[in-house]
């Protein structure tokens, strides 16, 4: 990928907003994002970022890590009827909170 294409992808990433429901979880720390960014550069993005109402519902750290790494994101839409419960279930299990 040439530099202008990479810059364009990074610019597209900055246009995404986080859904207000993401605020029920603490934001990722800079060192966590940096670490995930290195993993994504090495292994690729293994889990898509989940969108709800056109905004990021789940995958805030993945989104930021891909932005930092200049890696293209994969998005999927959430179509369930309990986005807050989905967010809690996915993140509390992963974080063992």
Tell me the layout of helices and strands.
Layout: H1 3-14, H2 30-43, E1 49-52, E2 55-58, H3 60-69, E3 75-77, H4 83-95
Parallel strand pairs: 1-3
Antiparallel strand pairs: 1-2
Helix pairs in contact: 2-3
Structural class: mainly alpha
Poorly predicted segments: 1-10
* Major beta-sheet overview: 3 strands, mixed
Percent of residues in helices comes to 40-55%
Radius of gyration: 14 Å
Separation of the first and last Cα atoms: 39 Å
Q: Strand order across the biggest sheet? A: 2-1-3
Globally, the shape reads: globular
- SS strand fraction: 5-15%
Question: Which sequence of SSEs, written as H and E, runs from N to C?
Answer: HHEEHEH
- Give the total of beta strands: 3
Mean pLDDT: 84
The number of helical runs is: 4
Key descriptive features of the protein:
97 residues, mainly alpha, three-stranded mixed β-sheet, 4 helices, globular
Structure description:
With 97 residues, the chain is mainly alpha-helical. 51% of the residues lie in helices and 11% in strands. It is built from four helices and three strands. It has helices at 3-14, 30-43, 60-69, 83-95; strands at 49-52, 55-58, 75-77. It has a three-stranded mixed beta sheet with strand order 2-1-3. Strand 1 and strand 2 (55-58) form a beta hairpin. It is globular, with a radius of gyration of 14 Å.
